[in-house]
Design brief:
By secondary structure, this protein is α/β, with parallel strands linked by helices. The chain has two domains: 133 residues, Alpha/Beta hydrolase fold, catalytic domain (Rossmann fold); 76 residues, no CATH class. It has ten helices and four strands. It has a four-stranded parallel sheet with strand order 1-2-3-4, with helices on both faces. Helix 4 crosses helix 8 and helix 5 crosses helix 7. The N and C termini lie close together (8 Å).
């Protein structure tokens, strides 16, 4: 029996002066240190899927499986932006990055002082089974804690770094991803529209599995995909 130990890498704590390729290389080195010569399974959610893809470019032999949940695809690869709930934020990052930084600190203040307000703002456009999660007290408590951690202290600079990197062109990097990739996506996702999953399936040569989950949106896909992924890992 092989013991599987989950590790949640807090990438927002990485020095915010480390950016672009140096950042992805740093993450790959840290994962390699933790793996200590063993292959790992990597899971990336939402914008985190973009970061996972970039780090895996530098781990061609170190990753057994890459799981992308509710993954965000390159904005330049299709007409995605108009279908995204975060359209205005991404447009802001691309055209007024300084204003986006201020918005991020404001969100941090809300997360600290008025977590309910931030939660309702972010889930006002919830669709599919995300609507049910939005009124689930347990989910609300967990996600509010996560938001607070995301925007806590210097972590906000790490968050800003990731979003700024995401809106830059990165479509061409996908040809460098050779690891065995699995895509899990909600059919009703309005944060990362379903067509993003379809694009990633076509662009990642190592993609061996895609599951479009009916009725699910962004976070509800995460909630249903993770137990399935863990079940797969338990069989290894």
């Amino acid at each position: 029996m092989i013991l599987t130990i989950p590790i949640c890498f807090d990438r927002f704590t990485v020095d915010s002066s480390i950016v672009e390729e140096a950042y992805y290389q740093f993450l790959a080195r840290e994962i390699s240190k933790i793996a200590d010569g063993k292959q790992v399974d990597v899971v990336g959610f939402s914008i985190g899927a973009f970061i996972a893809l970039q780090a895996c470019r530098y781990l061609p032999d170190g990753v057994k499986n890459l799981h992308l949940i509710s993954a965000a695809a390159p904005l330049e690869a299709g007409d995605f932006l108009n279908a995204m709930a975060g359209k205005q934020v991404f447009q802001m990052v691309k055209t007024f990055s300084a204003l986006f930084v201020l918005l991020s600190y404001w969100q941090g203040l809300l997360a600290l002082l008025f977590p309910n307000t931030l939660f309702h703002l972010l889930f006002a456009s919830a669709v599919g089974k995300d609507k049910a999660l939005a009124i689930d007290s347990d989910f609300k408590a967990k996600i509010s804690k996560l938001f607070k951690s995301c925007f806590l202290g210097s972590n906000v600079r790490g968050y800003v770094r990731d979003i700024k990197a995401y809106v830059q062109p990165w479509e061409t990097t996908l040809s460098e991803v050779s690891v065995n990739t699995h895509i899990w996506h909600g059919a009703e996702d309005n944060w990362s529209p379903k067509m993003m999953a379809e694009y990633l399936k076509s662009a990642i040569t190592g993609c061996s599995h895609i599951e479009i989950m009916e009725g699910l949106s962004h976070y509800s896909c995460l909630y249903e995909a993770m137990p399935k992924i863990c079940k797969q890992l338990s069989k290894i």
